[in-house]
Amino acid sequence: MPAERPGLIGGSAAVRLRVTGGLLLVAHLAFVAWLTLRPLDVPWVQPPNLRPFAGIRADLALGWPVAAHRIGEAVALLAPLGVLLPMTHGRLSVSPLASLVRTALAGALVSLGILLLQTGVPGRVPDIDALLLNTAGVALAHATVVPAARVWLRRRSERREHAARRQEEATQGRTPTFPRVGIAP
Predict the structure, then answer these.
(1) Residue 179 resides in a domain
(2) Total structural domains in the chain?
(3) CB atoms inside a 10 Å sphere around CB 28
(4) Is residue 172 part of a domain?
């Protein structure tokens, strides 16, 4: 049996978890592509927003409910990647900061890819603020869910290992001990 890499979730449950994460990741990315890359039939389009925070300021100028809806949509669009990317990787022992940075960069690259693809889609306008908000959503989802989930999975794994050791000791019985024998005179 090959040795597992340290820090990886092991066993059939882990494989199911990774496969489920991968399938959910593909399904979510397909949904995001359908949502963001469909051509829109509009009479006119705004110019691309290449100034950071200009679109956010414009949304905030529209008032609370509209701004919360628009900003919330942008934050929530790619937020599931913050959980699904680490889920497909399957590591339990990893630096929380490194995991957050790696996941946020992956989310930023996905958002940048969408932004670049939107330049060729009729009716879609690239917006740098969408990239910033999408990346913030990925990082926020990761920071709120993944560290706690990893702690829970590590504890669960340790409990199972401990129970398996106790079961093994119970089936094998106690190791026999021999009384000390003194040295002959």
Answers:
(1) no
(2) 1
(3) 17
(4) no
